[in-house]
Write a structure and sequence with these properties.
Distance between the termini: 54 Å
Order of helices and strands: EHHHEEEH
Strand order of the largest sheet: 1-4-3-2
Oligomer: single chain
Length: 115
């Protein structure tokens, strides 16, 4: 996975990882991250909004580890922390995605009503 100069700088600032880890983090986020179409509710709307705002060809957005990774033209363009209002839902949906239970909110287990 290639990184733009800006993407590399943002990885350093926001992920705090060593420079040699940036490509690996970008690749893992692209491969394993939550796509907008796999998210649901407000989080899905937010990720689709980010995708629409991204410039360039072959645009892609992934949510991974509480960070939003933005790709364009096969390169990591930027990365930033998921806004506070989406973090709880983002963490829950990422966990569901990693266990193979991706889908809509109706796929979730619901508690039976209290007696």
């Amino acid at each position: 996975m290639k990184l733009t100069k800006h993407g590399d700088q943002r990885c350093s600032e926001r992920l705090g990882a060593a420079a040699d880890c940036h490509k690996k983090a970008a690749h893992m986020a692209f491969r394993d991250g939550l796509k907008p179409e796999e998210a649901c509710g407000c989080l899905r709307l937010y990720l689709e909004w980010v995708l629409r705002r991204a410039d360039g060809e072959d645009r892609a957005v992934r949510l991974y580890g509480g960070y939003v990774f933005v790709y364009g033209g096969g390169k990591l363009v930027t990365v930033y922390l998921l806004p506070v209002e989406y973090r709880k839902e983002g963490a829950a949906q990422e966990r569901m995605g990693r266990t193979g239970r991706r889908g809509t909110s109706s796929d979730r287990l619901r508690r039976p009503p209290s007696p």
